[in-house]
Amino acid sequence: MKAAVLRQFKQPLSIEDVDRPIPGSDEVLIQVEACGACHSDVHVADGDWKQLVSIVKQPLILGHEIAGHIAEIGGDVHNLRVGDHVGLPWIHWSCGECECCVAGNENLCPSQKITGVTVDGGYAEFVQAPASHVVKIPHGLFSINAAPLFCAGLTVYRALKKAGPLDGRHLAVFGIGGLGHLAVQLGKIFGAEVTAIDISDAKLELARALGASGVLNAATTDVVKELRRRGRVHVCLVSSGAKAAYDMAFYCLRPAGTLLVVGLPAENICFPPILMAAGEVKIEASAVGTRQDLREVLALAAAGKVHCKVEARPLSEVNQVLDGLRCGKASGRIVLTPQ
């Protein structure tokens, strides 16, 4: 089968013919129809998340926003059939027995396997997966529209759920890319008044079209000063991978406000402890999400309440796509298709 393979950090992926996976007795083989290109893939390919470098499989097939149809099933699989429309997220497998799993936080399982990091992912024609961890895609969702929900949609959904009741509260979304444009929509669903912040007028226009009540261009506006003038915000969700976005967001929060850590810069972020204490600021992070979170996101999309702006590109253009993500050029989400 064709696959885009990472053989060395900071080097282009190579399109290769590799062996088609053979599913084990409790696994399925998914024929990939779409795999989202996530900024996390850039960090993995570049080796700039130092905490993950030692566990990255080499050589590696990247990709963790996977949607397609089941091509084969193992002999012990009884809950899925060949032809089922399914997807596979970042959490490839979790143990189901540890404290985190038992508490409903399988995304924090210390024994987890990670799709496109510790095991091969979906930048390929086929991917094998534990039958227990694939999720069925509801009728009416095409693979190219569903794939980005397996990480981008899932991550912001879980973050907003953890922020507590949002009805009538002011939410600021920093970065209107693949995650941010979904966060705007989900914030509205949760009842928040949403302000979108970015440095691209085109992305801000997208945010306005998706329901943002206000937009601010950080390249031409003092965002902190403006949001403070408006009374500051209850919740800031940073979907950008830029440290500068966090440096702005923290100072826009009201007392007892919540900073949602979703975008992951390669650099560390830090804030003055005296100001954190004085404002009783809460910092919440979102580690993708659980299978139940994912089912809820997919249901919203199937009901027409969440729409991912998607551009499909062939797998052969994977390196151009990743370069575009490095430069912050992508609006919405790009998905790679094998053909």
Keywords, please?
339 residues, alpha/beta, Quinone Oxidoreductase, Chain A, domain 1, Rossmann fold, 2 domains, seven-stranded mixed β-sheet, six-stranded parallel β-sheet, 27% helix, 27% strand, globular
Major sheet, described briefly?
7 strands, mixed
* Rough outline: globular
- Distance between the terminal alpha carbons, to the nearest Å? 12 Å
Q: What would CATH call the class of the largest domain?
A: Alpha Beta
Report on this model:
The protein is α/β, with parallel strands linked by helices. The protein folds into 2 domains: 2-151 and 289-337, Quinone Oxidoreductase, Chain A, domain 1 (Alpha-Beta Complex); 153-285, Rossmann fold. The protein is built from 12 helices and 18 strands. Strand 11, helix 6 (180-189) and strand 12 (193-198) form a beta-alpha-beta unit. Helix 5 (152-162) packs across helix 6 (180-189). The longest helix has 12 residues, at 291-302. The model has no long low-confidence stretch (mean pLDDT 96).
Brief overview:
Helix content is 27%, strand content 27%.
In terms of topology, how is this protein built?
Layout: E1 2-6, E2 14-17, E3 27-37, H1 39-46, H2 50-53, E4 60-61, E5 66-73, E6 85-88, E7 91-93, H3 99-102, E8 113-114, E9 126-130, E10 135-136, H4 143-146, H5 152-162, E11 170-174, H6 180-189, E12 193-198, H7 201-209, E13 214-217, H8 223-229, E14 233-238, H9 243-250, E15 253-261, H10 273-279, E16 282-285, H11 291-302, E17 310-314, H12 318-326, E18 333-337
Parallel strand pairs: 11-12, 11-14, 12-13, 14-15, 15-16, 17-18
Antiparallel strand pairs: 1-2, 1-4, 3-5, 3-9, 3-18, 5-6, 6-10, 7-8
Helix pairs in contact: 5-6
